[in-house]
Fold this sequence. Notes:
- The structure is a single chain.
- Strand 9 and strand 10 form a beta hairpin.
- This protein is α+β, with helices and mostly antiparallel strands.
- The protein has helices at 4-8, 25-42, 76-81, 163-167, 189-194, 196-205, 227-247, 289-308, 326-333, 377-387, 390-417, 423-443; strands at 58-65, 73-74, 88-97, 134-135, 140-141, 151-153, 160-162, 185-187, 213-216, 222-223, 339-341.
- The relative contact order is 0.09.
- Strands 8-11-9-10 form a 4-stranded antiparallel β-sheet. A 3-stranded antiparallel β-sheet has the order 2-1-3. The protein has a two-stranded antiparallel sheet with strand order 4-5.
- The chain is built from 12 helices and 11 strands.
Amino acid sequence: xLSRDSLLFSPTRDGVPSSDDDFTANDILxxxxxxxxxxxEAIPYSQxxxxxxxxxYVKQPVFACQTCLNFAGVCAxxxxxxxxxxxxxxxxxxxxxxxxxxxxxxxxxxxCNLTKRADAAPNDNRYDKSFKGSFxxxxxxxxxxxxxxxxxxxxxxxxxxxxxxxxxxHADTNDSPLGTDDFDMLVCAACVKSDPRVRRIMDRWAGxxxxxxxxxxxxxxxxxxxxxxxxxxxxxxxxxxxxxVDETTEREGGEKRKADTTTxxxxxxxxxxxxxxxxxxxxxxxxxPSSSSASSALAASTAATDxxxxxxxxxxxxxxxxxxxVLMRLEKEGARMNxxxxxxxxxxxxxxxxxxxxxxxEEVLEPEDDPDAQKSTMELGLEALEKMPRGAxxxxxxxxxxxxxxxxxxxxxxxxxxxxxxxxxxxxFFEMMQEERRELAATR
Length: 444
């Protein structure tokens, strides 16, 4: 994490002057405004929401403290009230998490400033490498000021993965088989390989044609789209090819003809799609036999479900023999084992009963927004000044006026000489002010 000094004077940040460059007072004011705006975006929460410890194990924004012992996680309110001066790593949303502030996990004497809870028993939270600031399969620390690639959160382990680590190339290259809008959820390869429950489900679902539970083979071909998505993808490919031909076809007289941009508006995706048409014999012949048979059985099962109008009928693909699933085939071929669920994938409550977050959006405990979040430091200072007793307020204003006059007098010769103000000049000024203060105190 960046220290305060490097945060203010870092050449890696847009709009913030570097200590190696010449800059004006206006540059500093603009940099301060930029930092305040960034702080409001990063932590728009109010401390009045209180610590979430008593709420139990809930899904909430979590911050991992790198300063306290054992890399514990704290809620949004405690990240401000109790750990505001500590080095924190934002983990974003984590499910089934209870605030560690004021528990023995953070070391003896740990106390929550909001609830005055101290040395409570440690929680049964799940901790991983991200609590130490390490993300993705590459283990790279996340720095929001230098990271340029897109990142996706695994729906199962909640780790964040780089686009390049998922697809093999940076998001900006635009050559990935799936774009950000092409899938709704990601199950990372690590979860598919290491979690037996996830593996058992994905052996049955992943890559099955028409299921919407997609995988990418070693040739970057997407397997498992729903028929509607498959048709849209083919239309986009054909439209792209037509546009390429049209753009290079010249009219009589040498004028190039523009590509036809009047295309039919794509059909809306059906949220939580429960039915689809059976794929015809034009299905990809490159798919494995198990994929084709599973697709046909899945279509037949769905049709039977529609005919009977029974909500209890299972629409999951049939269980395939060990070693014959699409997932196993792709694994043997050396493909990446990430699984992508598109919006409108064929849901099956019976299959995913142990993973409710696959089927419905989870309830999130979010803190209240800070009503003062949009106010600048100056505005907050003036409000605080107005709330002070009259005598203290006058003393504060007189002290500010005295500082302003002394600083102007000190910098006047520098301005007349035309040279830049240096760090040594500022240090000399405050040393002079401290000496005056010591002399004044000695005479009293």
